[in-house]
Every structure is written in structure tokens, then in C-alpha cells.
């Protein structure tokens, strides 16, 4: 038993020594990026999938739990693969050219996005649309910072909010099929289901009656 403990301590010392070696830093950073991508993806997706599944999906408890586990696994795996690919390509480009430049980041992320998030499925679609909104806001701010667009005299956010909400509700009412399924489900609950009730039970307590009255 003592021998096993000594062997474990020796292995930990060897691992810690390896982690301190600067020449392995780039490769180890890629591995830790994979780890962080997997953990972060699980942390983000698990609670979201739990809430959305129990709010909007039908089926048995087993089916719901399977759906949550599958969504969490897919998000976690894809983010881990993307971080691994991105950091690996960044390290490779830096080693080949001897320094970093802005194009490296764009190129590495494009390749990772194509390979990992190019499959058009609900998880990837949601992640890409989440990023799209942030990219548009970021590019707008960058355009102002660089002087390509004049600094607004008033905060433009109220106008942006009005146009976004006006457009999304117009799409929902007249071109619903163009919206993401999860957004359709949320809006159906908010705007369609609130038009239907039979008595106090499905007016205040439940969204829909489950009996056959």
C-alpha cells in the first residue's frame, strides 16, 4: 500500500515537472483548451437543456433526460474540439512564421468553425446565432472606435431594440417557419397559448388543460 502511495507521488511530481517546461507550453495549452471547452460547454448547455426540455418538450422522463444528456454532450464535445483545433492551428502558424498576426486568429477560427460547427443541427445553429448577435454588436462598436462610423449623439440601443423586436414578431406572425424551432416554441407559449383558456385552471394555473373536458 505504501509502495502505491510512493508511486502516485512520484507520478504527480513528474507530471508537475512536465507542466513547468516552457518548451511544451503550446502543446499543453492546446490540451487544457480541450479540457476547458468540454467543461464550459457542459456548464452552459446542461441547465439550458434542463429548463427548455421540461418547459416545452413532451415525452417520458427517460426521454427528457436522454435529450438533456445528448444536448449537453454535443455542446461540450463541439466546444472542446473547436478550442483544440483553434489553439492547435494558432500554435502551428506561430511556429511556422515565428510570430503571431491577426490573420492567424481569423484563419484558425474559420477552419475550426467549418470542421466543428459546419453541421447544421439545432445545437450548432443556436451557438452560431448566439455568436452572430455578439459579432454584429462588436463590429458596430469597432466601426465607431476606428472612426468609420460617426459617434452617435444619442444611445442607439432603444432604436435597435425596437427594430429587433418589431422584426422578430413580424416574422413570427407571418413567416414563422423562418425562425429557430426553440424560438418558435418560446413565442408560441407567450403569444399563441395566451389566447386560449377554458376556465380558471388553464387561465392562471396551467398553460394548457391536460384533461379531456
TrEMBL record:
It holds the Pfam family Tim17. It comes from the Eukaryota. InterPro entries: Pmp4. One of its GO terms (cellular component) is peroxisomal membrane. This is PXMP4 protein. The gene is Pxmp4.
